[in-house]
Amino acid sequence: MASQARPAKTIGILTSGGDCSGLNAAMRAVVCRAIEFHGWRVVGIHQGTMGLLRRPVDFEELGLRIFTTNILRMGGTILGTTNKGDPFAFPGPTGRRRDRSADFIAGYHLTGADALIGVGGDGSFAILRRLAQQGNIRLVGIPKTIDNDVGATENSIGFQSAVAVATEALDRLQPTAASHDRVMILEVMGRDAGHIALSAGIAGGADIILIPEIAYTIENVAAHIGRVRQRGRNFALVVVAEAVKDTLGQQVRRRHGTGSATYGGIGHRLGEEIARMTGAETRVTVLGHVQRGGEPNATDRLIASAFGVHAVDLVAAGQFDRMVAWQNRQVVDVPLADAIAAPQRVDPAGALVRTARGLDISFGDA
Ligand code: F6P
Questions:
Q1: Which of 28, 183, 214, 329 could potentially form a cystine with 280 if both were Cys, beta carbons 3.0 to 4.6 Å apart?
Q2: Tens-digit pLDDT profile for residues 28-51
Q3: Spatial distance between the Cα atoms of 242 and 146, rounded to a whole number of angstroms
Q4: How many C-beta atoms lie closer than 10 Å to residue 70's C-beta?
């Protein structure tokens, strides 16, 4: 099974940014490929960039036990992660930010790693790439995010599972909507991209999909609900992406106790407006973090496994500053710079939007 030529190597791996389903499956694949086929060591860094900023450095050796457990099916990340650990602007106790990139780089070299596999989204990659250039770190990226907004890849780990959860939510909302003659509004995540809303909206039979990439008017949303009623249907399903602006053109955000703010709340604003304009009874479901947790679906397990194996093979081939990617039904690799050059948003003229329009799904176009 194992290859003959075995250059001594240790690979470091970390997960960075928001978690999602399929991270552990990717780690499992990295461990198998690196240890079983190349005879290398793998060290897992805890809590993303944070693990390398701590002293002693916070990491553990990942052995083949990772490969033999149930890890393929497990949600979250066994290593932990953070979306607040930018070493270039690290928050101190008083809130003042300082540059701790040198600590990160020193921490990385203390692990004894010869290469680093970073599993992250575009924000994490931009930071890791800068650290890699500054600190002589040989970096390979694996894209993950439920938002699916990393460039140069059709799929990032976690997206397909999030779509499956949002679709199931629509499956469950439809019967209760029909029983009560209601307009149901489902608010989904996705940050500034409408990929989850678009895919789940088509798969779950939505009547209206609102995404940040296509401007809407509430009048057009109300008019479409009117058309649905004229056809004799007593309910409607609306999917709205969290970054969609309200009728005044404002983004809707929620501030959390720690001071950070995330999108959230457009569903309720929309529910009130639709009720006011159509007289319909509306109810709002905000899906939130259930889209991120739980078991990865089969597609995410497959993509994560392919990404993990290919990432290790890039290290073996001495190919760095690259990201594994999914294109045309297979795993490839691209320059990391291409992946982070611009976020991948929904193409308003793209195939899925055309499909939705072909199904008489309204985007409430302004
Ligand atoms: O980027 C992933 C994501 O789940 C977004 O869809 C969402 O806007 C954000 O993270 C939520 O962040 P947090 O985990 O900090 O609440």
A1: 183
A2: 999 999 999 999 999 999 999 999
A3: 13
A4: 9
Nearest to 100 by CA among 90, 112, 114: 90
Determine whether the shortest distance from the Cβ of 120 to ligand 1 is under 6 A. Answer: no
Catalytic residue positions?
Answer: 147
pLDDT score at 7:
57
Q: What is the DSSP letter of 90?
A: E
Q: Indicate whether residue 191 lines ligand 1 (CB < 6 A).
A: yes
Q: Any residues with CB less than 8 A from the CB of 18 and at least 6 apart, and which? A: 81, 83, 121, 145, 146, 292
- Closest to 159 measured CA to CA, from 291, 355, 330: 291
Give the list of residues 6+ apart from residue 94 with CB closer than 8 angstroms, or none.
Answer: none
- Written as six digits, the tokens of 267 are 């569903």
Q: What share of the chain is helix, strand, coil (3-state, %, to 5)?
A: 40, 20, 40
The answer to whether the bond into 56 is cis (omega within 30° of 0) is yes
Q: Which of 198, 196, 194 is nearest to 291 (CA)?
A: 196
